[in-house]
Amino acid sequence: MKKMLAGIIMMLMILQGSAFAQTSPGYSDFNIVSTIYEPYPAEPGKYIDLYVKVENLGTRAATDSTFELLPKYPFSLDSDVGAIKNYGRIEPSQPVLLKYKVRVDKNAVSGNSSIDLRYRTGKEGLWFTISFDIYVKSRDTILSIEKVESVPDEIVAGGKANVEFTLKNLANTQVRDITLKLDLSGSATPFAPVGSTTEKRIEKLEAGEEESVVFRIISEASAEPKVYKIPLTLTYSDEAGTTYTKSDIIGLLISSDPELQLYMEESDTFMGGTKGSVIVSVSNIGATQAKFVSIVLAQSKNYEIIGPDRTYIGNLDSDDFDTAEFKLYVDESLNNTKIPIVVTVTYKDAYNDEHTREFGLELPIYSREHLIRLGEISANGGSNPVVYAIVAIIVLYILYRLFFRRKKRS
Fold it and tell me: Which CATH superfamily groups domain 2-136?
């Protein structure tokens, strides 16, 4: 028993002496002088080139020195990178530069993370560990507005719409406390939220993840058709607690298309084999101006267009109208029927988008017998003499009045 106790005491003395030899100024002793890594800061999902400068602070040369990097999460070494580096002899005050290519995990949290380096001198020496920090931070802490979609694309004045934002986390780490706010408070902004506020929140988005938020809005009935710029603010935080704020602008379109109506305002009385005029009227009953209005009469086997087949109207304001006259010769085979007339109207809206509308009208073609019954023509083929007589009386009356007034003045 006494021999065993003496052996244990002797072993402890040997171990104590070995430890003292490693740390005593009279022996070799290493310490980290500096650490440098590129890029700085380290980025999640990427590599860094790590340079560790160690120096023998002892007064005795170190022989058979071994250094080993002990990476731990979020750091690691690839299989082809050796963690152990051996040196034969290192003199006192002699620096040694250790280089490692270190991988940073893609899910690494922003902030300082420690990494260990251990060393020993002699093949049987004790290991000593030194720890140091590496600062990790995503350089691309970006929360992107990937897409903005309005349904409908063009909002009718006084109408409702859903405005959808798709947000995507382009960073390599999680972002959280996401807030998207629309600024609809401006006097020139004719929109208001419906059924919700102007602010939407998302708790968090993982790296590469995306999510959509929808704002339900309504436009004022008196809103002028044009593009309205809506300011927005996006705020979010990274895993280190750093808050980011991003301001941007989106455009929303208010549209109130011109609404055109076309009808036959006047026409001559047609029989087969006769010619005459047709006057069509186009009206804009919409809330906005129709620009560059043009009217085209389609060709037909039932008639021949005498002269131009199109009329340029120009701009047609809201609650305004204009007319176009076309001269026709009706096919002589037609008798007591109605023939279709196709009129095409082209125009541009407030955004200079071109529109085309086609209208169908009917032109009555009478028989000779029917016009005689109506008194439009006489039985002998001429026009009704009663009509001539009435016109003559009116003309004579006007002339008499003009002559009588002149006589009175003189």
Answer: Immunoglobulins (2.60.40.10)
